[in-house]
Design brief:
With about 290 residues, the chain is of the alpha+beta class. It contains eight helices and six strands, in the order βββαββααβααααα. The strands form two sheets. A four-stranded mixed beta sheet has the order 1-2-4-3, with helices on one face. The longest helix is centred in the middle third of the chain and has 69 residues. The relative contact order is 0.14.
């Protein structure tokens, strides 16, 4: 199945651990390049995130972003460092003797002292597991979106394949007329400057000219490449690079046909082929 490399997916889950929101964006890229943005509490799952993305996607520049809003189950319990508070009060009492005042530090003053308030260390393992499960769901959505867009790209490419085959038929039908027209023009020009034409020599030159103008091989290769494009479109593997190579081959044959064009219609056929190939190439650039 054809997959596009451009897609977006968003998946959100809520439970006692809190709220987890994944956003995944992907665009076309020559290889698979993954960027991961995680909250500090969940930084440990980054290797697993990259592994999961690599298992599901073949190519593309992928940005994975996770937002986390803690719930009650993981809210850190705030505790008072009683030992430190006692030390602060004792130190205050000693200072009062030197300052000759009875003003003790307020509760607010003590709370602002570094280390007085402590947060109990939390186990984020359940949150990490939930985040990875949510990632799998987000990747499912992303792959589905890439497949939908891929189906649209495949339809566009197949439409142009049909149009390309029509141009190949036109070129095959037109070339005998092109060659005969060149022959007639050549005879007419030679007749103007030469009173007596050597029929044998003229025929030999005509044969050589016809060989130079013959495009049967180019048409055969074009037809073969078009068949291969259709075969590749039906593959279950990532096919973007293979299709890109085939577009280059099609363009090479169309250019050769253009270089052999000897009349306006043959040139128009070559130009139309190159337009269709370029349209397909633009779509192929976005295929995984």
């Amino acid at each position: 199945m054809i997959r596009s490399m451009t897609a977006f997916a968003r998946h959100q889950v809520r439970d006692a651990c809190g709220e987890l929101t994944w956003e995944i964006r992907s665009v076309n890229h020559r290889y698979l390049e993954t960027t991961v943005r995680l909250p500090e509490e969940l930084r440990a799952i980054e290797p697993s995130v990259r592994e999961r993305v690599g298992q599901r996607l073949g190519r593309g520049k992928v940005e994975c972003s996770l937002r986390f809003r803690p719930g009650d189950a993981v809210a850190g319990e705030i505790r008072v460092n009683e030992r430190l508070v006692t030390q602060l009060l004792d130190a205050s009492q000693q200072l009062l003797k030197f300052l000759h005042t009875s003003a003790l530090p307020t509760v607010t003053d003590i709370m602002q002292w570094p280390g007085v308030l402590e947060t109990a260390e939390q186990d984020f393992t359940p949150v990490q597991q939930a985040a990875l499960q949510a990632l799998d769901a987000a990747l499912d959505d992303l792959v589905a979106a890439r497949e939908r867009e891929g189906a649209r790209l495949e339809q566009l490419i197949r439409q142009r394949l049909v149009a390309m085959r029509e141009q190949v038929v036109r070129a095959r039908e037109r070339m005998p007329q092109v060659i005969e027209g060149v022959r007639e023009r050549l005879r007419a020009r030679l007749a103007e400057v030469v009173e007596t034409l050597d029929a044998a020599r003229l025929e030999q030159e005509m044969v050589l000219l016809a060989q130079r103008l013959d495009v049967d091989e180019e048409m055969d290769r074009l037809a073969t490449h078009l068949d291969e494009v259709e075969r590749v479109l039906g593959s279950d593997e990532p096919v973007g690079r293979r299709l890109d190579f085939l577009m280059q081959e099609l363009n090479r044959e169309a250019n050769t046909l253009g270089s052999k064009s000897a009349d306006a219609e043959a040139t128009a056929i070559s130009v139309e082929m190159k337009v269709l190939i370029e349209q397909m190439r633009e779509q192929v650039q976005n295929i995984e």
